[in-house]
Amino acid sequence: MEQIHKTLRDAKGMRWLVLILVSFTMLCAYYLTDAMAPLQERCQTSLSWSATDYGFFTSGYGWFNVFLLMLVFSGMILDKLGVRFTGVLSIIIMIAGAFVKYWAISGHVDGTFEMHLGSYQLLAPTAKSAVVAGLGFAIFGVGCEMFGITANKAVVRWFRGKEMALAIGLNTSTGRIGTALAMFTPVPLVNMTGHLSAPVILSLLLLCIGFLIFLLFGVLDKKLDKEEAAAGISSDDEFKFRDIIDIAKNKAFWYITALCVLFYSAVFPFIKFATNLIVQKFGISDTFAGYIPALLPFSALLLTPLFGSMYDRRGRGASIMVLGSLLLVFVHLLFSIPSLNNLYIAVGLVMVLGVAFSMVPSAMWPSVAKIIPENKLGTAYAMVFWVQNWGIMGVPLLIGNVLDKYCISGHVQKMVDGKMIEVTQYNYTIPMLIFACFGGVAILFAFLLKHEDAKKGYGLERPNINK
Ligand SMILES: N[C@@H](Cc1c[nH]cn1)C(=O)NCC(=O)O
């Protein structure tokens, strides 16, 4: 019988199985990334965290990635040692980070912490539990970002020339299921168990399952290696320092990176504060308030593959990014208007934000693969993520500080565990305007990217599927 499939990746079922295996761990990783977001007020009442403490802890995700250049090293490890090794390493790091985070928020750490350099105060008094939880989140962030670039590279390897954008979109979408679950399960879990750390324990369990599932992917990927070697297909994966210079010389790469950091700075940190925004602005209890931001990843998880598939078949990647950035600004500006405090408006705006949050990622990540050759892709994704992590780290810090300095609108007494506790109220107008500004500059870079593509012919406006 004539041989139909040259390698495993030519077998459709195998490609999609690989996607499922890689994506499950993505779901677990994204769950823990946002699992504390609906618990901002609970952290205030149970651990005495201010908005600044919460912002400080949230910024932890990027500390090691940014300052220790862990993301850049992750890219090098990925391009040098491959997706299987890097994937396993990243999951182990995530588990270690999750454990530290669990330790910090489960009542083992008390008191406050401050840091001085001579007479200069580096860190104002901050809840020690927020500092240790931030350290755990920083370790987890290294693993999570390492896994993100590994998953992207694995998917590109298995899907290039096929349904690449759809596959990347579906992989991201599975991550969004994790984010959606993180929006509405933590509060019920804490209520049920009486422990603030319950969602983190669930994440630890999920990550261990993700580890086992990723090992299965490793078996298939190794088989593909062998088949490609036998067929004389070489994967020129070796990392060279020159790669960083080559990538850095590419103007389109910097436009897409700038768009990435600005766009995501207006989305991921927004998610971290969104539950509290809904509580404060729309007067809903935090048990239900998390359901509204959950609509954001929900709509994104349905629409990201749709836009990915559109991009595969029809092209228009750069235009999709422009439109997505415009929608982002529209939503944040409307959120900033104090009189627009009707719950239906909140639901509508979050859903439109979900559309923007589908459009930009579904076009952005496959576009990187069109601008940068595959053998440098691990390093390229790592460099984009590294810049993006400045935003993921810096913006929550900024918003937390702005809230405590300029946005306190009052205090209310709430009954928590049988005790009356004073809870601070915030007005979110200034934070929403800050998010809108990031979106405004993102639009500019989306246009610059479109223009550069028209000049250099990267094919961002062309379909991905080879006919
Ligand atoms: N670098 C990641 C950041 C992230 C957020 N949640 C988990 N990881 C990223 O940008 N991933 C791509 C995406 O669109 O989620």
UniProtKB/TrEMBL annotation:
The chain crosses the membrane at residues 16-32, 60-78, 85-105, 130-152, 164-184, 196-220, 252-271, 291-311, 318-337, 343-365, 377-399, 428-449. It is found in: Lysosome membrane. Keywords: Lysosome, Membrane, Transmembrane, Transmembrane helix, Transport. It comes from the Bacteria. Residues 253-467 form the Major facilitator superfamily (MFS) profile domain. It catalyses: L-aspartyl-L-lysine(out) = L-aspartyl-L-lysine(in); L-histidyl-glycine(out) = L-histidyl-glycine(in); L-alpha-aminoacyl-L-arginine(out) = L-alpha-aminoacyl-L-arginine(in); L-lysyl-glycine(out) = L-lysyl-glycine(in). GO terms for molecular function: transmembrane transporter activity. GO terms for cellular component: lysosomal membrane. It is a multi-pass membrane protein. Homodimer. Interacts with lysosomal protein GLMP (via lumenal domain); the interaction starts while both proteins are still in the endoplasmic reticulum and is required for stabilization of MFSD1 in lysosomes but has no direct effect on its targeting to lysosomes or transporter activity. Lysosomal dipeptide uniporter that selectively exports lysine, arginine or histidine-containing dipeptides with a net positive charge from the lysosome lumen into the cytosol. Could play a role in a specific type of protein O-glycosylation indirectly regulating macrophages migration and tissue invasion. Also essential for liver homeostasis. Belongs to the major facilitator superfamily. PANTHER family: MAJOR FACILITATOR SUPERFAMILY DOMAIN-CONTAINING PROTEIN 1. This is Lysosomal dipeptide transporter MFSD1. It comes from Paludibacter jiangxiensis. The lineage of its organism: Bacteria, Pseudomonadati, Bacteroidota, Bacteroidia, Bacteroidales.
